[in-house]
Structures are given as structure tokens and as C-alpha cells.
Amino acid sequence: MNQTSEFSKVEKDLVVSMDYTLTVDGEIVDSSEGDDPIEFIVGQGNIIPGLEKELYGMKVGEKKSVFVPSDEGYGIYDPEALMSISRTEFPEDIPMELGTEITVQGEDGEVTMAVIESFDEETVTLNGNHPLAGKDLNFEVEIKGIRQPTAEELEHGHVHGEDEHDCDCESEDCDCSHSH
């Protein structure tokens, strides 16, 4: 598949494939090196806003260093996102280990991710902040390809991949032709 087709620069509603390396506090925390480039639809909220806005206008093969302050990345660290739960209310089937990720349903019904930050005999403390909340991010990016999304990808707001079963859509509105 010709990734570049007739599109010469990154614009809204186009699929971009990109290599990246993310450095935080001088340490590489994520990278596409050794893997396929990531693919996403520009303007659909698939990547953090501070990075996405810096990609507009870039061309295939172009490289760029992008600094993203925490408020345009994974947000400011919110001490209110810490939750203490009585150990008796904590599900027994979840391993009691620091860093274990769990899903938590709030009083409003919203489901979020949290990690076990600490625990003792009586209480489990969960942290609902993203692990990179409050951190400034430094990206090295290279645009590898730009293409038109399929009608289905644009409707769903994400890239499905070459195999129709690659869609990892978790939205109830997604009508992908396979089960999730």
C-alpha cells in the first residue's frame, strides 16, 4: 500500500503513520523503534493534543523535536484522583501488588483506570492519574506516511489496520464488523 498517495502534508482527517521516541526526565519511556510506526487519524483525539498540534503541516520524511508541557500532554497531577478504599471492599481476585492496574467505576458510572499506589492491612490507595500526569514530554517524531482514511475509519474515528480484525474500538457506537 502506498502510504504517501497524493497527500503531501499532515492535515485534519488524514491518517498519519509516524515513528516516535518519547523521553521524560531524560529517560526514554516509549518508542516505536523496532515496531511499525503508529497510525492515527489527525483531529480525532487519538494522540495527545500538545503533540498533535505540532504535526500539522509536516511532510513525509520530515523529522521534528516536540516539547509538550504536562497540561497539553497527560494533564496536571491531580491529588483528588487518589482514592482510598477499605480492604474489605476491594475485590479478592485482584492481586494486591503495587502498580497493578484496575478499572474503577465512579459514582457517575464513568469507568476509569487506576493503579494500586499503596496498601496496608485496612486500606488500599488507588491513583487515577495517568502515570505521566504532571510530566513534561519530549518527542522525536518522523512522519512516515500520509493517506486518506477509509469511510469506516473516519466514521469510527480511528485506524483499523490492514486486517479488519485489527480494530480495537471499545466504543459502544462503533459498529465494526467483528466482536470486541
What would you note in describing this structure?
- The strands form 2 sheets. Strands 1, 2, 3, 4 and 9 form a 5-stranded antiparallel beta sheet that branches. A 4-stranded antiparallel beta sheet has the order 5-8-7-6, with no helix packed on it.
- Strand 6 and strand 7 form a beta hairpin.
- It has 180 residues and is mostly beta strands.
- The model has no long low-confidence stretch (mean pLDDT 86).
- The longest helix has 7 residues, at 49-55.
- The chain is built from 2 helices and 9 strands, in the order E-E-E-H-E-E-E-E-E-E-H.
- The chain is elongated, with a radius of gyration of 19 Å.
- It has helices at residues 49-55, 151-156, and strands at residues 15-24, 27-31, 38-41, 63-68, 82-86, 101-105, 111-119, 123-127, 137-147.
- It is 7% helix and 33% strand.
- It folds into 2 domains: 15-74 and 133-149, Chitinase A, domain 3 (Roll); 79-127, Thrombin, subunit H.
Please tell me the total number of domains.
2
Provide a count of the helices: 2
What is the class of the largest domain in the CATH system?
A: Alpha Beta
Name the beta content range.
25-35%
CATH topology of the largest domain: Chitinase A, domain 3
Q: How many strand segments?
A: 9
Please give a handful of descriptors for the protein shown.
180 residues; mainly beta; Chitinase A, domain 3; Thrombin, subunit H; 5-stranded antiparallel beta sheet; 4-stranded antiparallel beta sheet; 2 helices; 7% helix
